[in-house]
Specification:
Layout (H helix, E strand, L loop, with lengths): L1 E2 L6 E2 L47 E3 L5 E3 L7 H16 L1 H22 L2 E20 L4 E8 L4 E2 L6 E3 L8 E2 L2 E12 L5 E2 L14 E2 L5 E3 L15 E8 L4 E13 L1 E2 L44 E7 L9 E6 L3 H13 L8 H15 L1 E2 L10 H7 L1 E2 L1 H14 L4 E9 L6 E12 L2 H6 L8 E7 L4 E2 L1 E2 L3 E6 L7 H7 L2 E3 L3 E3 L3 E17 L7
Parallel strand pairs: 19-20
Antiparallel strand pairs: 1-2, 3-4, 5-15, 5-28, 5-29, 6-14, 6-27, 7-10, 8-9, 10-11, 10-15, 12-13, 13-14, 16-25, 17-18, 21-22, 21-26, 22-23, 23-24
Helix pairs in contact: 1-2, 3-4, 3-6, 4-6, 5-6
Length: 529
């Protein structure tokens, strides 16, 4: 090692420049060392000059007096040519372009998802939910008869033990339980619980009623057309016999285990949630024509009618809802909007069943506000779309009206909904839809064509796309009924004598266990391409 004769900094053998002060180091072995410079060559006319004082690391002066940083990396022509060729390849190669665009889109999606507002849901919860109804008799001797539906277990393909059957003789994929009922009981006026069989069997007829000490009666006669039976589904019947001025209450408590499940194959879905691998997306979806080829003889084909549930002319003077068909796919405004949504789909995807259903979902989420002061008679689908306003029933009417324009199966789910902390509850309604996989997907995965579809839940007002959450308690899933009588009976579960007032149901809950933590569901429209 040596030292610079100007600034005394450490130098190394072979250094021709001081990298501290920038001065040229003399080659003491050369007689003309004043003209020596880096690499021991140069002349008096081309040598670097010594600066009067250091001006920066590696900065020197040329013989013309111009400053130059000899430590700065320089591009040579060969390197520049390589970069130009590489950039030309990137911007002209379709494969590279597609990959680059895909990466950019992925980065944008990630940023949008992080910035978007989101709802938070628990993964799995064991809890009890209680539905309480109060009755007050302000007239003569009277009574109230309440029909309390006994809820069922709910599976990923409801009503079936199999999710898919396969063409290669491998074992069928079994369904996954989303909601498992563990107990049902009824309490009258805060008395001792009356245990109810989970499936309502064996039945307890009206002739074998349980009568409380206060004279109230409880029985579970099973589902059927007889007036003494349950008219919607298996139920518990409770008759509160009330003297003048007397009040009473009935509470039904249901114990259940509810688990999150998704029918959507997307990176947006938390990887811990069941169902993603068997879920559907734009690229694996079939067309509108495929709908009739999947579950061709199943109940879903009965949920494709253009009109459903004629409520007649509303007797209530409220211009916001005039009654008529709750779901109406033949309304001119509905069909016009459907065509508009079709045109918004990517080129070549105008008949993509998934793409259309998701675009309808995103349209409603962006253009229909939630109405907490909705009319007594629910708005029809066309009325909800025209107002840009609706509660859960009304926005579901709009969603299903638009789906049925294209013959897509859609039907109702009923129950109650709570917040992520299980503190506040309210009665709720949302949708089930059926989406077909493409024939190519079915063949590739060896799935029997008639079973190659998903049936999933869609809750427009709560931003739940093909998602079940433990915060949604399912009391009853609509059964095929062109007349709408079953739905009408669900909405009117009680009858009572003159003078008796019945309060709206109040829901409360007690959580016994939460497992798996929670997850976010961003409120963000899907980029369909």
């Amino acid at each position: 090692m040596g030292s610079c004769p100007y600034c005394r900094s450490v130098t190394y053998p072979g250094d021709t420049i001081c990298y501290s002060c920038g001065r040229v180091l003399a080659n003491l072995r050369s007689k003309s060392f004043a003209m020596e410079q880096q690499f021991n060559h140069g002349s008096k006319d081309t040598t670097y000059k010594m600066t009067k004082k250091p001006t920066g690391r590696g900065v020197i002066q040329t013989h013309t007096g111009r400053s130059k940083n000899i430590m700065k990396r320089r591009w040579n022509k060969s390197r520049l040519l390589v970069v130009v060729v590489f950039l030309a390849f990137v911007f002209t190669s379709p494969v590279v372009q597609e990959a680059t665009i895909g990466q950019i889109a992925s980065i944008k999606e990630t940023l949008y998802l992080k910035a978007a507002p989101a709802r938070v849901y628990p993964m799995e919860v064991d809890y009890e939910v209680t539905k309480t109804i109060q009755a007050q008799n302000n007239g003569a001797e009277g009574y109230l008869v309440e029909n309390l539906i006994i809820p069922n277990d709910v599976a990923s393909l409801n009503g079936s033990e199999q999710q898919y059957a396969y063409t290669d003789n491998s074992s069928a994929m079994l369904t996954t339980n989303l909601q498992t009922i563990t107990s049902v009981s009824v309490i009258i006026n805060g008395g001792a619980p009356i245990a109810i069989p989970l499936d309502g069997l064996p039945i307890r007829s009206a002739d074998d009623k349980i009568t409380t000490s206060a004279g109230h009666e409880v029985w579970w006669p099973g589902y059927g057309p007889d007036g003494e039976q349950c008219g919607v589904s298996t139920c518990v019947k409770v008759q509160l016999n009330l003297a003048p001025g007397q009040s009473a209450s009935v509470a039904m408590t249901v114990g259940l285990k509810s688990t999150s499940y998704s029918w959507w194959d997307s990176g947006r879905v938390d990887s811990r949630i069941n169902g993603i691998e068997e879920g559907i997306q734009m690229d694996t979806s079939g067309t509108f024509d495929d709908i009739s080829l999947r579950d061709a003889f199943g109940e879903s084909q009965q949920y494709r009618g253009q009109k459903w549930y004629d409520r007649g002319v509303s007797p209530i003077l409220d211009s916001r809802s005039l009654g008529g068909w709750a779901i109406n796919a033949q309304n001119d405004d509905v069909t016009a909007l459907s065509n508009q949504i079709i045109q918004s789909l990517p080129e070549g995807e105008n008949d993509n069943a998934y793409g259309y259903a998701r675009a309808v979902f995103d349209y409603l989420h962006a253009n229909a506000e939630y109405d907490r002061n909705s009319p007594i008679i629910a708005r029809s689908g066309p009325e909800c779309l025209a107002a840009g306003l609706g509660d859960c029933d009304e926005q579901t009417n709009a969603f299903l009206s638009l789906l049925r324009v294209k013959g897509m199966p859609g039907w109702y789910a009923f129950g109650a909904l709570t917040d992520a902390n299980f503190l506040e509850w309210e009665a709720h309604a949302w949708a089930y839809i059926q989406l077909p996989f493409s024939e190519d997907y079915c063949i590739e995965h060896n799935i029997v064509l008639s079973q190659c579809y998903v049936q999933g839940q869609v809750d427009v007002v709560n931003n739940k796309w093909l998602l079940h959450t433990p915060t949604a308690y399912l009391a009853w899933i609509e059964q095929p009924d062109a007349s709408g009588d079953l739905l009408n009976a669900y909405y009117q579960p009680a009858w009572y004598t003159t003078g008796v007032e019945r309060s709206p149901p109040v829901y409360t809950s007690v959580v016994s266990e939460m497992n798996g933590g929670s997850y976010r569901v961003p409120v963000l429209a899907e980029n369909l391409g």
